[in-house]
C-alpha cells in the first residue's frame, strides 16, 4: 500500500476511531472531570433564573429620595419578601434577588443615608445594575458542545445551569504491547540494551487523550509472542491495541505479520511523515483497532499525535485536533513527499521582544526525547519546506 499523506492519515484515523465508540454513560458532576461530554450541554432554565442585583447597594423604585424599608439585605431563602412602592428602597448585595417593584440599583458608593432617608446626587436610569433573568443564557441555549473535555469551568457551568449529572462518552479501553528483547525497565543499560521510555509515559498519554490503559504486556521479538500479545484475552477485551517497536519490514519486525496471521488488515500501512514513517493502523477481528508505533521514542510520540490522538477523539465523539498557525523562526528545506513534525518552542520573532514565533527545539532526532521535553508545540512542515517569517501550521501538544 502507498503511504498515507499526513493529513489524510489523521482524518482516516479519526474516522476509524468513531467505529470503536462505546455506549455512553451518565455520571454525577463530581465524577465528570476529565471525561468527554457525549451530548450538548444546555441550560435547563434561564441563567440567572431570576433578576438579581449586579452591585452592593439598594434596590429602589422610581426617582429619589427614597424611604429605606430595610437597611440590611434579606436572606434570599427567607420567606418574607419586600415589595417596593414608588419612592421606597431596600438594601441588597451582589447577587441578591431584587424586590418586586425595583426599577434600578443604587450603588452603595453613590448613596447618602440620613436616618431612613436615602438619596443620591446621581440620576438613575431604569434597569441600572439589574442583572435580568436570562442575561447569561436562555433556557435551552447550548453551553458546551458534545465532544467537549469536561474541565472545572464546564462542570461549574453545568451545575449552575441546573444539571446534577452529565452524559459522557465511554472511555475506550487500551491494551499496550511493549516489544523488544533489548529493552530494560530499570538500571543502567549495557551496550546493546536500551532503557524503556514507553511504559512510564504511554499510560499517562492515553489518559490525557481520553482513553484508559486496561492492560499491558511486555514481549520479546518473536512472531508467536506478538500474535499472543495482540490477540490474547486482554487484547480482545480492549477497543484499541497499541504496540511499540517492530513496525518495519525486516526479519526482526513481527507486528505486520502478526496482524495478517490473525485476520487483521492494514488500514494505514505507513505515513508520509518524518519521524514516524513506519507507523501503522490495522483493523483487527472483533471491531478492534491496532496502532503500531515505531521503536524510536520521538518517532513513536509523533505517531501518537498523528494516529492515537485522532482515534481516541473519534471514539469519544470529539473533533479532530485543530491546526493553528505561527510564524516560523527558521528556514526548512524541502522534503518532497514528506511532512515533518518538529518539536518546537516559542521564541521572539525577528525584531520582536515577545515570543510569538516557533523554532525547532534542540535534540530532535527520531531516537531522542530531550527536545520534546523542552517543546511547547509540534511544528507541521509540509513537503515544500518553509522560510523564516512564513506562517507554518502547528499542533498544540496533545498530552
Automatic annotation (TrEMBL):
Residues 175-314 form the MoaB/Mog domain. Its cofactor is Mg(2+). One of its GO terms (molecular function) is molybdopterin molybdotransferase activity. SMART domains: MoCF_biosynth (SM00852). It holds the Pfam family MoCF_biosynth. Pathway: Cofactor biosynthesis; molybdopterin biosynthesis. Gene3D superfamilies: MoaB/Mog-like domain (3.40.980.10), MoeA, C-terminal, domain IV (2.40.340.10), Molybdopterin biosynthesis moea protein, domain 2 (3.90.105.10), Molybdopterin biosynthesis moea protein, domain 3 (2.170.190.11). InterPro entries: MoaB/Mog-like_dom_sf (IPR036425), MoaB/Mog_dom (IPR001453), MoCF_biosynth_CS (IPR008284), MoeA-like (IPR038987), MoeA_C_domain_IV (IPR005111), MoeA_C_domain_IV_sf (IPR036688), MoeA_linker/N (IPR005110), MoeA_linker/N_sf (IPR036135). Keywords: Magnesium, Metal-binding, Molybdenum, Molybdenum cofactor biosynthesis, Transferase. It comes from the Bacteria. Transmembrane segments: none annotated. Its EC number is 2.10.1.1. The keyword Hydrolase does not apply. It catalyses: adenylyl-molybdopterin + molybdate = Mo-molybdopterin + AMP + H(+). Belongs to the MoeA family. Catalyzes the insertion of molybdate into adenylated molybdopterin with the concomitant release of AMP. This is Molybdopterin molybdenumtransferase. It comes from Paeniglutamicibacter sulfureus.
